[in-house]
Amino acid sequence: MEIDWLSFTPIPSLLGGMILGVAAALYVLLHGRILGISGIISGLLHPKLTDSAWRLSLVLGLVSAPFLAALFFGLIPVVEIDSSWLAIVIAGLLVGFGAQYGSGCTSGHGICGLSRLSPRSLVATLAFMCSGFVMVFVIRHLMGG
Amino acid sequence: MKHSFGLLSQYAIGVLFGWGLIISGMSNPQKILGFLDLAGNWDPSLAFVMIGAVLVGLAGFYVVSKKSQAFFGGALHIPTRRDITKPLLIGSLIFGAGWGIAGFCPGPALVALGAGHLKAFVFVAAMLAGMEICERFFVGHRSKPSL
């Protein structure tokens, strides 16, 4: 392992992380729910009259965030997607299936779960980190990615 | 009236979360993959994101633990389960595998979609399909999953 000092962004990442924490804290204080993106989206698949509006509001907020960041701060998000179309489809299927089967993703288990010291979320977070490490190792170092 | 404010608040928190992902660099799949690549040029940024988020989150959830109602009304929907189950473990392992392939998880994928990336749109469509497959063939019989 060598640290990639050129890519490493400790200050913006810490600051951005704190903003994520503020959003998760506000969400539970104001709305009484866990800010878990996968759960909020999956609830839209079989919409119920009572909760589709708020789920959609949150998703629209996420989707419009880059536009508003550009508008207010002149901040254009860097998004580099090197994966092939096939890899994107497979990754999407696995992420969707896994989040649904495992009851959460990086936001629900990772940020919120660890913040409320949930043993289930700790196990989930360790599990997806480990399989993420393994997958990248296989793709980049065994298959020569 | 309170209902409309509630929806506006949902929207604003979505924007805030999106900004957090953009500022932290997590809306870029290459930074996620850089963190997951322990054997290569390792980018520790994601660990700093988690530290920042959880430090603030700990305070937030501590405050909530003293409350019985959400500001916009209604009971708190906070999971109470503590059992480590096979679906939890297997689902999370599968999630991580997909995460490691493209460097996308649900939040950043929606932000990248909003930034106009067609591949993010395809990722989100596939993700919804994956959720539906799971719901229909694997967990459809059980009630709403909790964290």
UniProtKB/TrEMBL annotation, chain B:
Pfam families in UniProt: DUF6691
Domain of life: Bacteria
InterPro entries attached to this UniProt entry: DUF6691 (IPR046513)
Keyword Membrane: yes
Transmembrane segments: 7-26, 46-64, 88-114, 120-139
Keywords: Membrane, Transmembrane, Transmembrane helix
Identification of the protein by name: Transporter
Organism: Polynucleobacter campilacus
